[in-house]
Design a protein that fits this description.
alpha/beta; TIM Barrel; eight-stranded parallel sheet; globular; binds zinc ion; MTA/SAH_deaminase; 8-oxoguanine deaminase activity; EC 3.5.4.32; 8-oxoguanine deaminase
Amino acid sequence: MSPTPVPAPCDTLVHGAHLVVDRDLEIPGGWIALRDGRVAAVGGPADPLPAAAARIDAGGRLVTPGLINTHHHMYQNLTRAYAPAINGSLFDWLTALYPVWAQLDVDDVEVSTYVAIVELLMGGCTTSSDHLYVHPRPGFLDAQVRAARTLGFRFVATRGSMTRSVEDGGLPPASVVQDHDSIMADAEAAIAAHHDPAPGAMTRVALAPCSPFSVSERIMVSSAELSERTGVRLHTHLAEDHDEDDYCAEVYGCRPVEYLERVGWAGERTWLAHFIYPSEEEVARLGRAGVGATQCPSSNMMIGHGTMDALRWRELGLTVGLGCDGSASTDSASMWMETRNALLLGRLRNGPASMRARDALDLATRGSAACLGWEDEIGHLRPGACADLVVWETHPVALAGALTDPVEGWLRTGPARAWHTLVAGRVLVRDGEPVAPALAEVLTAHRRAAVRLQAAALG
Ligand SMILES: [Zn+2]
């Protein structure tokens, strides 16, 4: 028998881990070697360790692929727990906040994105999309991309939009809607400036008209055409609320899913946020078309309007991932917490045998990666994947007695936080603290912006 070959030297070696490589591969006492922003090799206790420029001793902790957030509204962290709006319905809540968000400027967007990404990194997230659909001034997407690049975060910026104001039967005020041509021109510019389709990309762009009740049919059709032409993905809110069924019946004369099909969105480049109220037949239909959907557990519970049956939807053929949704509906942005809440919601709905911690982790990694069309490179740690991973920490008091299953222990105890978060092989959270040199300064600017935006409510 020939001896096991010694792996080639690497940039960073994470060792001493319970390593979750993929949905069907875990290595107790495992190690993972990272080189040039990619996973170079994985091994177990019996395999020789490669030489490494830097070593991270996981100290027996759980190591997983980085969690992936497929739905967020980062700018909303400027209006978290906003008292005048917290107890209304979704439509009441939006109506109260739109005038506040109408005051956003470019600096607000940059600092809120920076803070949101740092928060996500601390909760073990290594890739996030953001649905930014309020554009009262130009330059918002550029500001977001700047923040993500400053931090070294893998980011899917979406060019959101709203065209239908109160005057046209929509919800938002006229100050936050734009006309069709301005939106499409800006979307084309954003794709040209920031969309990187290459493997290992740090920035991609998607198109994201806000929802059936805030955009025109024409912008949906034009977005589908631009997606077809450029290959960028499509994202929108769909079937979040029963009010939306009534709205679609009245305005479009059909159900939300039929509307989606009519505007050319029922294809494999589309992923939807929420998707709570389709029929099973509609879920299967969109599943066959290759559509994905994001469950946002905390936001669904906070808004109190139900949640999708995630594993059932997946059984019916739909791709399902997780998201934390807006910072002003969830009021927090921890993908660990969303993963845990997905587990709790699944078991609450379908009983204790219906869902395990590994199922929830799979939604947050493989499922979310597939929603973003990126499952070849992220959401797992097989050799060749992007070097995006998390070494998890749970306080020893909370973890005391959890001995038999490291993945169940990770999600059932807690709260867990990232001890180390690595994106493209770079350490962005180290020993539980974000590596974000400008954080103190950015938090000061963020507070100033939040006070300005909320001035009316603060009296
Ligand atoms: Zn949302």
